[in-house]
Write a structure and sequence with these properties.
alpha/beta, 215 residues, five-stranded parallel β-sheet
Length: 215
């Protein structure tokens, strides 16, 4: 428990340039407080004391603006930056050293029974406002861009972009950056290709018309 607690504090210090000390993180960071409260709530949930577990999680929600169901499974080193509006569902599983930004939802798509929320691998980044909905896996080292809506599995070492999200491979290696914005947009690339083809066809048609007029 102490090692996990230490990892959670270090995660903030390593990934947030505004964090100045462990004391500041411990007393003032809402994301750290939410994760700390969740670990307590999860203990009660696993020991079938679900009312107490829910009470702790709801109290944390009112204090931090972050709602984590006590049944969710969270690995060490989770960093929730700012965190307001974050929702993490009951059957969500989050691996080690993940980063989640504000207004993110890790949720379901209906009233399914059993596993109905996503599983995040290790070192996953979920950008601001992203929605990850369904019982699929987001692979290790994956990035989900700000505002993306992810409805299907994301392979490791990839970036998901857009609504609905499409996958962009990041050279098959882990990306070390926390940049949520400067990622390739496959939709924009497809539109550019279509525009290029249309211009080419228009030029060919104009050339045919010019040749006919000369005849």
């Amino acid at each position: 428990m102490f090692k996990t607690f230490k990892s959670d504090i270090n995660a903030v210090l390593e990934r947030d340039p505004a964090a100045r000390s462990k004391a500041e993180v411990f007393f003032l960071y809402s994301g750290f407080k939410a994760v700390r409260s969740h670990r307590k709530a999860n203990w009660f949930f696993r020991h079938n004391l679900k009312f107490i577990a829910r009470f702790i999680s709801q109290r944390s929600r009112h204090k931090t603006g972050i709602e984590i169901h006590p049944g969710a499974t969270i690995g060490k080193g989770l960093f929730i930056d700012h965190g307001m509006g974050v929702v993490i569902g009951e059957t969500t599983i989050i691996g080690d050293n993940c980063t989640i930004y504000q207004n993110v939802t890790l949720g379901g798509t209906g009233k399914e029974i059993g596993k109905r929320h996503p599983t995040l691998g290790n070192n996953v980044l979920v950008g601001s406002g992203a929605k990850v909905l369904g019982p699929f896996k987001v692979g290790d080292n994956a990035r989900i861009a700000a505002g993306a809506v992810v409805l299907s599995e994301i392979p490791p070492n990839s970036t998901a972009v857009g609504v609905p999200a499409r996958v962009v491979k990041v050279n098959g290696v882990r990306s070390e950056t926390l940049d949520q914005i400067h990622v390739s947009d496959p939709v924009a690339l497809a539109l550019c290709n279509l525009e290029h083809k249309i211009i080419t066809l228009e030029n060919e048609l104009n050339e045919l018309r010019n040749n006919k007029s000369k005849e």
